[in-house]
Write a structure and sequence with these properties.
Shape: globular
Number of strands: 15
Bound molecules: uracil
CATH architecture of the largest domain: 3-Layer(aba) Sandwich
Largest sheet: 6 strands, mixed
Distance between the termini: 51 Å
Order of helices and strands: EHEHHHEEHEEEHEHEHHEEEHEHHEEHH
Radius of gyration: 24 Å
Strand content: 15-25%
CATH superfamily of the largest domain: Uracil-DNA glycosylase-like domain
Mean pLDDT: 86
CATH class of the largest domain: Alpha Beta
Number of helices: 14
Length: 437
C-alpha cells in the first residue's frame, strides 16, 4: 500500500506531484491511501516513475475546484479520474459515471461556497499605523479561503485585509498573500470579541504566517464585494446574516455591472416574493415587458405561468419568483427588441445573485423553468425533457426540480400539442405543490 500525506487540506501541488509519480509508477488507485498531515509526520517516499503524461485542461480545472471540498474522499476520487484519463478514457464525457458525478458534485459545491463566501463576507475596519486593515470573519463550508483570498487580493490589490476562518487566516498587505492558523468560532463570537482578539494576537499571527498558495484560479472568476473605502458609521455586521433582508441585496443588484447586459437593459429585474417562501421559481431572464416594468414574469409568459399555477393550486403570492439572469438580453430590430438567449458567461456572472437569493431564502424546493434556469442551478448543460418532473438533490442539500419554461408553451406549433404540453406543465406544478406540502 502506498501512503501519501499531503501537507494541508488544499495541498494542490502535493497532490499533483504525488499523482504524477504514482501514475508514472503504475500504482493503481486501490493501492493508494491519501491523508493530510500538517506536522510532517506520516511522510512516505513516493515511487519513482519514468516518462510523462498529461491530462486535459478541463480535468485540471475540475480537480482544482473539487480539491477544495470538505470531503475526505476527494484526493482518492480525483486520482481515480486521472488514472482512468491516463488510460485513454474520456472520463468527463461520462456524465452517468458515479465517480465523475461525485467529483462534479464536489466541484459544484465548492463553486457555490466560493460565491457564498464572497456574498457573505463583510469587513471591520481596523486602523493601523499608516493604513486601514479590513478584517473579515467567515466559516466556510469548504476549503475555499485560499483561492478566494487570491482573488480578493488581486482585485483589491491596493487594500490591506485579513480574513479569519476556523480553517485558517489569509492576510494581504498590498504585496504578499500569507496564510496563518485558524481561529475557533467560540473565540470570536461577535464583532467586539473579534476586534479585541485581533488586537491581542495579530502580531504573533502575522509573524508565523506562511507565504503563498498555488490553487489555480480556474473558475474562481468574477467580482468580489468591495471592502468599504472608508470606515462605516456604527458596527459592521459580521458576517452579513444569511437571513438578512433581501431588499438589501436587491438594492445592490440594481447597480450590477457583473456582465455587459446592464448596458442596453432598462433596469435590473430582481426576484420577488415572500422571504419565507418554501418554493423558489427560476426563469431565464426578464422579457421586454418585465424589463420596462421591473418585475419578473408579468408579460405573456407570466400570464400563462399564473394560469398554470392557479390550476395546480399554487398561489403566486406565496412563492418567490426570479430569473437566472437579471437583465433583459435583446437585439434591437426596428422598434422591436428581440429576445436573445443569455450565454454561459452571463449566466455564470449572474449566479452570484441567484446564490444570494438561494442563501437568504433557503427554500425547500427550487424550480428551474427551462434550460437556462436549469443550467444556472445545476451548473451544467441540462436536457429539460430528460430531467423534468422529479426532485434532484443539489450538492448543498437543497432540492431542485426541472420543468419547461412557460414561454415554450407559447411556441408550440399546433393546438393539440399546446394543450398537451400545458397539461404536462400543470402536472409538474402539482408535483411541486405536493413536494412542499
Ligand atoms: N421569461 C422569463 O424567463 N422571465 C421573465 O421574467 C419573463 C419571461
Amino acid at each position: 500500500m502506498q501512503r501519501v500525506a499531503l501537507v494541508n487540506e488544499t495541498d494542490w501541488e502535493g497532490w499533483r506531484k504525488a499523482t504524477r509519480s504514482l501514475i508514472l509508477a503504475g500504482v493503481a488507485p486501490e493501492d493508494v491511501r491519501w491523508s493530510v498531515s500538517s506536522d510532517g509526520e506520516d511522510r512516505h517516499p513516493l515511487p519513482e516513475g519514468h516518462g510523462s503524461f498529461g491530462v486535459s485542461r478541463s480535468l485540471v480545472a475540475l480537480a482544482s475546484l473539487a480539491i477544495q471540498a470538505r470531503d475526505a474522499s476527494r484526493f482518492d476520487l480525483l486520482y481515480r479520474l486521472v488514472w482512468r484519463a491516463n488510460a485513454g478514457e474520456g472520463v468527463l464525457q461520462k456524465t452517468d459515471d458515479e465517480t465523475v458525478r461525485q467529483v462534479q458534485r464536489l466541484a459544484f459545491a465548492v463553486r457555490a461556497e466560493t460565491h457564498r463566501m464572497r456574498t457573505m463576507l463583510r469587513y471591520l475596519p481596523v486602523p493601523e499605523k499608516d493604513r486601514t486593515r479590513y478584517l473579515g470573519w467567515y466559516e466556510p463550508a469548504h476549503y475555499v479561503l485560499e483561492a478566494n483570498a487570491q482573488l480578493i487580493a488581486r482585485q483589491f490589490s491596493g487594500l490591506t485585509f485579513s480574513i479569519l476562518t476556523p480553517d485558517g487566516g489569509a492576510h494581504w498587505d498590498n504585496a504578499e498573500l500569507r496564510f496563518s492558523a485558524g481561529v475557533a468560532r467560540r473565540t470570536v463570537p461577535d464583532d467586539e470579541a473579534l476586534l479585541s482578539w485581533w488586537r491581542a494576537h495579530h502580531e504573533r499571527l502575522l509573524r508565523h504566517a506562511r507565504i503563498g498558495t498555488a490553487i489555480p484560479e480556474a473558475e474562481q472568476l468574477d467580482e468580489v464585494p468591495r471592502p468599504p473605502d472608508r470606515a462605516p458609521v456604527g458596527p459592521v455586521v459580521l458576517p452579513l446574516r444569511p437571513d438578512g433582508p433581501l431588499h438589501e441585496a436587491m438594492q445592490e443588484a440594481s447597480d450590477c455591472r457583473r456582465c455587459a447586459l446592464y448596458g442596453p437593459a432598462t433596469q435590473t429585474v430582481f426576484g420577488e416574493g415572500p422571504a419565507h417562501a418554501s418554493v423558489l421559481f427560476v426563469g431565464e431572464q426578464p422579457g421586454d415587458q418585465e424589463d420596462v416594468i421591473g418585475r419578473p414574469f408579468v408579460g405573456p409568459a407570466g400570464q400563462i405561468m399564473d394560469r398554470a399555477m392557479e390550476e395546480a393550486g399554487i398561489d403566486r403570492r406565496t412563492v418567490y419568483i426570479t430569473n437566472a439572469v437579471k437583465h433583459f438580453k435583446f437585439e434591437p430590430r426596428g422598434k422591436r427588441r428581440i429576445h436573445k438567449t443569455p450565454e454561459a458567461p452571463e449566466i455564470q456572472a449572474c449566479r452570484f445573485w441567484l446564490d444570494v437569493e438561494l442563501i437568504r431564502l433557503r427554500p425547500k424546493l427550487v424550480v428551474a423553468m427551462g434550460g437556462t434556469a436549469a443550467r444556472a442551478l445545476l451548473g451544467r448543460a441540462v436536457t429539460v425533457t430528460r430531467e423534468r418532473g422529479r426532485p434532484i438533490e443539489l450538492p448543498d442539500g437543497q432540492t431542485a426540480f426541472v420543468t419547461v419554461h412557460p414561454s415554450f408553451l407559447l411556441r408550440v406549433p399546433d393546438e393539440d400539442a399546446t394543450a398537451r404540453e400545458y397539461r404536462a406543465f400543470v402536472a409538474d406544478l402539482r408535483t411541486v405543490a405536493g413536494l412542499v406540502d
